[in-house]
Specification:
about 150 residues; mainly alpha; 2 domains; 8 helices
Length: about 150
Amino acid sequence: MLDAKVIETIKDAAQKLTGHKKRAFMAKVAEDYYAGSARKTETYLGWNRQAVQLGLHEHRSGLRCVDNYRARGLKNTEETEPTLADDIRVLVDGQAQADPQLRTTFTYARISAQAVRDALIDEKGYCDEALPTRQTIGAMMNRMGYRLKKRKR
C-alpha cells in the first residue's frame, strides 16, 4: 500500500504525539490509507489496534476520552498493605525524635530501614518473603514523615 519511506515518516510523526492527539492522528491515517480498519493499521504500521479503534470512535462521535495516567503503575505499599504501615509506626515511634533545631517537621528515626525490616520479622511475625525490600521500607518511612539514620559503612 504505502512505500517504506512514507510508513517511516508516519510512524515517526505518531511517536512524537501523545494522548488524544496521537489517537486522532492514528484514526486519520487509518481512514485515509486503510479504509478505517484498525486491524489493517495494526498489521501494516504495528500500532495498537485498541488505540486506533478508540481514535476512530472519538473521531466519529466527536467526543474525546480522558486519559487516566494517574491510575497507571503500582500503588504505594501503604495502600496495598495498610497494617504494615501501622506496624512500622509502632516500631519506629519509640526510636524517633524531633528535629532538635525545629527546622523541619520530620521526625528523625534512630533506626535504619534494615533494622525495621528485621524487627518486623522478629517482633511482628512477618515472613521474609512477604515483606518489601529494605529500600521500599525506607521509602515508606520517608513518606510517613520519618528521616532515617545514616548507615555506617
